[in-house]
User: What shape does this take?
Amino acid sequence: MAASNSALVLPARRIIIIDDDALFRESLEQNLADAGFEILAFENGLLALSYFANGGGGDLILLDWKMPDLNGIEVLRLLRQDDIQIPVIFLTVLNDQIYEEAALMGGAVDFVEKSRSFSILLRRIGLTLSGARGDNDEVGDRGGAAQDIDLGDLNLDVTSNRAIWRGRRVDLSLTEFQIVGYLAARPDKDVGYRELYDLVHGVGFFAGEGEQGYRANVRTFVKRIRQKFRNVDPAFEQIENYPGFGYRWRHEDRA
Assistant: This one.
């Protein structure tokens, strides 16, 4: 993954790299350091988990999938099990849609193939970190909710990225919160797959293969969001599908 001269230089943040490929890891570490990040790299998941267990921290994790002892999805599961909520981007040679879906359903915020250029990865990192630290300018540029939303039984607090449904908290990831905010800010209006995909990945980014690739990506996110709402309210049906086009947030006022 070669660095581009036009790569976006971002403010210093700590990025954790977990990858057993020494050459790739070192190259990525150097490129990110040149872009202004503080980097901490681990050659396997066990070392990274030990670091976090001993109080270590970071702003973002770049996680490989295929590693000895523990694979990436197992590392992610253990991180979340220990309530470590640092955003995770999978960075892997695997490009089958089933892996991307498993990563997103497991709580990762993104899935990027290693064959992508460094400039694309850097943009994905920038979008994730800007949301993680609550920079609403970036979210606003992508059309997300720029202010709190009180819509029927739904309350969204954009400062804390907290979602409340019928008085109970819904444990959404940052990306899931942005999708809900985008839909709820446009109640009863149809929002296309492509529009939601651009919200998550940034305009001009492509994952998967063609139209069906990005639709499957969005469907995975919405499936997970629906399940999280149904965990607190089995009757939740607010996110409706418009077949062949996208989704809408159905608004119902209740007395």
